[in-house]
Specification:
- The protein is an alpha+beta fold.
- The protein has a 3-stranded antiparallel beta sheet.
- Helix 3 packs across helix 4.
- The chain is elongated, with a radius of gyration of 21 Å.
């Protein structure tokens, strides 16, 4: 799964809330449903998407499936964000190096005297 698809998968509000819960502790689907106050079938569908993306793993304990985060994958995603933003951090600090095609018409540049 590419980074954009993965970001889309984890940024859906309910799935993001699931990830936040799973970052604290591993839970079974029933506990997750109670904590988020949604049906077990809805939780199951969201967990299926997260499992297919490799974001969570499930382990059967007794009769219940318990879910935990795939921290390796999420750390790789965080590293991807960091590396992408770090590339442009220096350029963003220096407005004189604007590469915008509207550089000459930029109202903010005129107001700030750049």
């Amino acid at each position: 799964m590419d980074q954009i698809a993965l970001i889309h998968t984890v940024s859906e509000p309910t799935r993001f809330r699931l990830l936040m819960l799973l970052s604290e502790h591993h839970y079974c689907g029933r506990a997750l449903a109670q904590k988020l106050k949604i049906s077990q079938s809805a939780i199951s569908q969201h967990l299926k998407v997260l499992k297919n993306a490799g974001v969570v793993n499930g382990t059967k304990i007794g009769y219940q499936m318990h879910y935990q985060l795939n921290q390796t994958l999420l750390l790789k995603l965080a590293d991807y964000f960091h590396s992408q933003f770090a590339k442009y951090a220096a350029a963003a600090q220096s407005p004189e190096d604007c590469a915008c095609e509207f550089e000459g018409k930029c109202i903010k540049r005129e107001q700030k005297g750049w």
